[in-house]
Amino acid sequence: MVNIKNFWRDVLRQDADAIRAYFHPGAWVNWHNTDEHFTVEEFIRANCEYPGHWDGEVERMVEAEGLIVTATRVYAKGRSVSFHVASFIRVTDGKIASIDEYWGDDGRPPQWRQDMGIGTTISGGGNEDR
Fold this sequence. Notes:
Helix content: 10-25%
Largest sheet: 6 strands, mixed
Number of helices: 4
Number of strands: 6
Strand content: 35-45%
Shape: globular
Structural class: alpha+beta
Order of helices and strands: HHEEHEEEEH
Distance between the termini: 31 Å
Strand order of the largest sheet: 2-1-6-5-4-3
């Protein structure tokens, strides 16, 4: 079985050769937020030529019936920007066959919700059930 935490490590390091080794022939990656479909080589190019240096952590991982779902926080090394990505990774014969990803920018709630006075911060504690 493919080691998804190592996959994410190599993606964040932008290590093209290491990334390539995780994929099954004919695999593909979809970035739904921007309506893009990539071959493995296109994905590697988009990832490895993306400007800046990156880091992150897999915050949650669930495996079921050949599908691995991860919630990963990705951020610039200087922490100037931060994102969360939900990845649905289909594995075949121990290699990644497909990835469907949904990216979102991290940030404060919009002002209209702050004005409503609803919700609390997840990281503020007391929200274990959220």
